[in-house]
Amino acid sequence: MLKSVNPVLAKNVSVLGATGTIGLHTLDVITQHPNRFKVFALTANTNVKGLFALCVSYAPRYAVMLHATAANELATQLKAIGSSTVVLHGEESLCYVASHEEVDTVMAAIVGAAGLHPAMAAAKAGKRILLANKETLVMAGNLFMQAVSDGGATLLPIDSEHNAIFQVMPRQRSEQLSQIGVKRVILTASGGPFRNASLDELKAVTRAQALNHPNWVMGPKITVDSASLMNKGLEVIEAHWLFNALPNQIDVVVHPQSVIHSMVEYIDGSVLAQLGNPDMRTPIAYGLGYPERLSSGVSSLDLLTTSRLDFSAPDLERFPCLRIAYDALNLGGTAPAILNAANEVAVAAFLAEQIGFMDIPCMIETVLLAASIEQVESIAQLVAVDAMARQHASDWLSVHA
Ligand code: NDP
Ligand code: MG
């Protein structure tokens, strides 16, 4: 697929989570710019079939599966067609392809806490990191931002809201937003499929209904997070670390059309927004090309068809996950890591149809309130905190599911 690559100019890209929604969108944009990018490594968890097809199309130097059995299966299939792609497995191999000296750019698009170690490896190695894996910042925001700074990495947010804010934020960084003339950031939220549902209706929603997002096509975990507004809560924490924004400088507004991807309000009253069709190829192309602009394949925004833009305040009673995420941010320390771990367990249980939709916030809040919050000191500590929170969440499940 990638024909006539100029090996001197082309940037080597490792796509972590290549078989996922963001991974595939990234490869779509890369395919449109064969002279600029070369796929160095592709990774997946269990999807051998998907990664095999991508290896055939992109002929990466490395392919990484999380587990040995899946890697062996992939290696056998690739060998049978004479592929020269080297197949590796395990978390260390994910870190290896994220930090390899020949890699320029890393798309961090693994879902969940599993993305933390490879993203840290890319940061320490000074890569250009296209960060989709928001859980890295939620769990380990201070350590990750420190690693980016110490490693000399370039961090480009891919989450559409943060990418929008990045695009309209002043380039200079500061410890305080007011020093660069910014009053607050305003994250837009589509409101998800249950925006207008009553509390009783929310209690009865099914897995299939939650997976049916009105505006975005995404992996199952983030789709459920979007329906519960936990996604917006995680994004509030993400914005805190990316932009040095205090909790009271981060507002959320429900905007069902998903045309304004987020906004920055300046102290003089100016509000700058980034608009576009809801298609992740725009932030991905921005991250790949920065500071240049690259075409992405996204169609032009037709304002006449859009015709109106609506806004409303989020309802924290029907969507308590957003409030709980603000609580975790205000608690600080290990609280966001606990929130994230409990949420991952809750979403998996909801997707397995073990608990109801409104059990998600209930379980997370129980785990968060029961935990003792510590200062964040190390990744090892966070890994232990994550495991403990998952255990507490599983205990809750064994009683309530
Ligand atoms: P998907 O579920 O579609 O894809 C996840 C990818 O991660 C797959 O390649 C999967 O492999 C891999 N993976 C899953 N678990 C592990 C693991 N334990 N170890 C290694 N790899 C693993 O997710 P999305 O692409 O939707 O989202 C990816 C990240 O980007 C998330 O953090 C999400 O919050 C964020 N994001 C996504 C957006 C979107 O529009 N989709 C928007 C903004 C942010 P396999 O296929 O084998 O399971
Ligand atoms: Mg987002």
Report what the structure shows.
- The structure is a single chain.
- This protein is α/β, with parallel strands linked by helices and 401 residues long.
- The chain folds into three domains: 11-157, NAD(P)-binding Rossmann-like Domain (Rossmann fold, 3-Layer(aba) Sandwich); 160-277 and 309-320, no CATH class; 332-401, Rna Polymerase Sigma Factor, Chain: A, CATH 1.10.1740.
- Helix content is 47%, strand content 15%.
- It has helices spanning 21-31, 48-58, 68-80, 91-99, 116-124, 134-151, 160-168, 199-203, 207-210, 220-228, 230-243, 281-289, 303-306, 320-331, 335-351, 359-370, 379-400, and strands at residues 11-16, 37-44, 62-65, 86-89, 105-108, 128-131, 154-157, 182-189, 250-254, 260-266, 271-275.
- The strands form two sheets. It has a seven-stranded parallel beta sheet with strand order 4-3-2-1-5-6-7, sandwiched between helices. A four-stranded mixed beta sheet has the order 9-8-10-11, covered by helices on one side.
- Helix 1 links the parallel strand 1 and strand 2.
- Helix 4 (91-99) runs parallel beside helix 5 (116-124) and helix 14 runs antiparallel to helix 15 (335-351).
- The chain binds NADPH dihydro-nicotinamide-adenine-dinucleotide phosphate (NDP) and magnesium ion (MG).
- Residues 17-23, 44-47, 50, 66, 109-111, 114, 132-135, 159, 216, 218-219, 221-222, 280 line the site of NADPH dihydro-nicotinamide-adenine-dinucleotide phosphate.
